[in-house]
Amino acid sequence: MSVFTGLRCAMCKTEFPAKALYVCDQCLGPLEACYDYEAVRTTLTRDAIAARPQNLWRYRELLPIEGEPRTGLHSGCTPLVRAERLARELGVAELYIKDDSVNHPSLSYKDRVVPVAATRAIELGFDTFGCASTGNLGNSVAAHAARLGLTCYVFIPQSLEPGKIVGSSVSAPHVVGIDGNYDDVNRLCTQVGDRYGWAFANINLRSYYAEGAKTYGFEIVEQLGWRYPQHVVSPVAGGTLLPRIGRAFRELREVGLASGDLPRIHAAQAAGCSPIIDALESGATHPEPVKPNTIAKSIAIGNPADGYQVLETVRRTGGAGARATDPEILDAIGLLARTEGIFTEPAGGTTLAATINLLNAGTIPRDESIVVCVTGNGYKTSNVMTDQLRKPTRLGRSLREFEAFLADHSTQPVQG
Ligand SMILES: Cc1ncc(COP(=O)(O)O)c(C=O)c1O
Description:
Layout: E1 4-9, E2 15-16, E3 31-35, H1 37-43, H2 46-50, E4 80-82, H3 84-90, E5 94-99, H4 110-123, E6 128-132, H5 136-148, E7 151-157, H6 162-169, E8 174-178, H7 182-196, E9 199-200, H8 206-212, H9 214-223, E10 231-235, H10 241-254, E11 264-270, H11 275-282, H12 307-316, E12 321-324, H13 326-340, H14 346-360, E13 369-374, H15 399-408
Parallel strand pairs: 5-13, 6-7, 6-9, 7-8, 10-11, 10-13, 11-12
Antiparallel strand pairs: 1-2, 1-3, 4-5
Helix pairs in contact: 3-13, 4-5, 4-8, 5-6, 9-10, 13-14
């Protein structure tokens, strides 16, 4: 059922065979997977998709593998939550959270891209699988490599949150903490990949890895009853997710699964690391690298690998960009949990805070349908919230003490 036909440079459009790695030898542009859309039309129908298991491989004709999926059989198909209480609080008509904070097995959107890269790593004959990570990718690479029995190296900046480090270490890969920021880690991994012939999910396997992110966009449309929303707000770090959501929307139209106007796709970044928003404001076609300084460590990438595609997608779809300050990020994490019971990490806080800023600026009209991309789980980064929250009430064991506490707080006990 493979209709993956090869790779093409996103910039100069030169074509490459299916087994090529990630950059164009003509212009150094990134390579993108190509498919035979006519063939896809005949097998990937709404009925066929509905009959398939609830995992990301239900869209496998539009994923760049040649054989059978090797992992990710429980990844993807996360909830699209209609956020009524949050919508009321923000004064908007139709609001959804696409909730990858509960993605299997490592609780972030990275469990979509890693199964595709890992499957491809095996197809291409690699035995060592690794990544340069801001935390979540390392968690996912370590988990899927463990399942597949691959030798695994996770490279991270030393300053990551403890929950993210444990989340990788527990699967027993080699975890290498580098004295530097993510961009330093990425540069080192590019050299290691070349020298040792190892597969790095987000570097030399990036053309395959990135395609897994399309499943986030496919699911949004399927879960809305094969209807496009009017706005999607996506976080941006390396720039994998946002352009692939856009590509997914276009491909659904191309293969006849959806019709109508394509959504406007907006970029969300932390104010302490916003090279994409800077470029949107200055009109540049490529982002200027910045030095990150934000609590949103998972999206603290100052030199986004796919910055060109992010800018192109935002502009083509009529989207915009917004920054969120660290205090706004923390407030938004609290707001989402208080209204919808979803505990996200700072990347999700950034996306919601940026959405609020876009609403307040009038860029997103309050009466249009909006999907906010929540891509990571707050339990991994609970340290950032400890100073924000009321301390738990501490009482002795007696009912009398509890009733004294209730009286103090002028709350009436519920009658039995
Ligand atoms: C939770 C989370 N959300 C979003 C992103 C955005 O990544 P990208 O722009 O590379 O798709 C990351 C990246 O590491 C992440 O960890």
